[in-house]
Write a structure and sequence with these properties.
0% strand; globular; 152 residues; mainly alpha
Length: 152
C-alpha cells in the first residue's frame, strides 16, 4: 500500500472515530446515559453529521471505483473484461439496494421528519452496507478455504 493511501486510511478512520464518539457522548448534560436518552435523540446535530459523513464516504467510494476502474482499463486492455464485470456488479448492488429499500419513516423524536427521499437513500445505503459486509465475509472465508486447499 502506498504512503498516501495509508495516510488517507488513517485520516478517514480518525474522522470516523471522532464522529462516532461524539454521537455516543452528545446529550444535554454532556454525558450519555439511558436517563437522558430522549435528550440525546432529540438533538440531531451529531446524527446529521454522521449521515453527511456517510454520504461523503459513499460518494468517495463511488468516485474511486470509477477512477481506478478507468485507470485499469486504459492501463491494460486485457483487464477490460474484468473491469467491466466489477463495474456491472457495483451497479447491480447499488440498484438492488435502492429497490429493496422501503423508505418508510422511523419513529424518532425529531421536530421535523426527513423527506421520503432521505429515508429511501438512507435505507439504500444501509442495505448496500449489509451486502458489502456479507461479500467481505464470504471473500475472507473463501480465501482461507482456497489457501488451505492449495497448501495440501
Amino acid at each position: 500500500m502506498s504512503k498516501l493511501a495509508k495516510i488517507l486510511q488513517y485520516v478517514l478512520m480518525a474522522v470516523g472515530a471522532v464522529i462516532i464518539v461524539l454521537f455516543y457522548v452528545q446529550s444535554g448534560s454532556g454525558q450519555f446515559a439511558l436517563s437522558n436518552l430522549a435528550d440525546a435523540l432529540a438533538a440531531t446535530t451529531i446524527l446529521d453529521g454522521m449521515l453527511w459523513w456517510t454520504y461523503a464516504l459513499v460518494v468517495l467510494a463511488i468516485a474511486l471505483i470509477l477512477v481506478l476502474a478507468s485507470v485499469a482499463v486504459f492501463g491494460d486492455k486485457k483487464s477490460l473484461k474484468s473491469t467491466l464485470l466489477v463495474l456491472a456488479l457495483a451497479v447491480v448492488l447499488v440498484a438492488a439496494s435502492y429497490f429493496l429499500a422501503s423508505g418508510n419513516p422511523v419513529a424518532v423524536n425529531m421536530a421535523e421528519q426527513p423527506s421520503a427521499t432521505t429515508f429511501k437513500l438512507t435505507d439504500s445505503l444501509l442495505i448496500l452496507t449489509y451486502f458489502l459486509f456479507v461479500g467481505t465475509i464470504v471473500a475472507l472465508l473463501g480465501g482461507i478455504v482456497m489457501n488451505a486447499i492449495k497448501k495440501r
